[in-house]
Amino acid sequence: MADVSEPQTFRVTRADLVRYAGASGDFNPIHWSDRVATGVGLPGVIAHGMFTMALVGRAVTAWAGAPDAVKEFSVRFARPVPVPDTDEGTEVVVTATVKEVTEDGDTKLALTATCHGDKVLSLAQALVRKR
Amino acid sequence: MPLDQTFVGRTWPPTETYLVGREKIREFARAIGATDAEYHDPEAARALGYPDVVAPPTFPVAITMSASRQVIGDPALGLDYSRVVHGDQRFAYTRPVVAGDALVCVNSVDEITTRGGHWFITTRTEVRTEAGEPVVTVWSKLVQRGEENA
Lengths: 131, 150
Fold this sequence. Notes:
Chain A starts with 7 loop residues before the first strand and ends with a strand. By secondary structure, chain A is of the alpha+beta class.
């Protein structure tokens, strides 16, 4: 098992946010309306924080090898992820690094997610069961 | 607007049962680009030891977000949802959610704090089966931004 995962890049477009809104039931208009988003002081439509966390979750389950190996998973949303209304959208880059192996043999992963070089999460970590 | 601090430590009655559908898990997995077979194919999931297709780790919010309206939607709390942003999110899993689960949510408020004109509320949702088997505990910290930062 590698101590540091290769950074994974996820492209995020408006279409992804619409699909995530429907799948998750989070229809907050800041995730699909520039008018509403700018009206509350945001630069424009932003990704659901939970969509970003889900992308990080993909990296965690890939590292863990199975979804039932994840014991704990937590993040702090530090910065919004603006998603422009373009074909390219934006990119979120995710890394996972082994921070420590606990006495029980579980692995604590330190996680990062960046957008244009800015950290959009802080205190992001997961605890993965010993296999 | 200040939040009602008497909400701290309160626990609400269990919510109505949420029946986890196979297609909902597939839809959620597709939406986050999770293509592994155990999220989509019941046979593949069973081969890995799950009773049916398994949900990705953040799927429980699709259940708890609506369940927690019981707390954060209570006008007595005083939360102005138009100024709310998501602060922190945490999951502690007993096991993953799988299709066919009949789940209930028990909401509590762990903490309400204020700093710099902002208000912070942490809800805890215990997600259990109807039979009382624990599945996952979900903590969400919401931030009500102060007027000057709105």
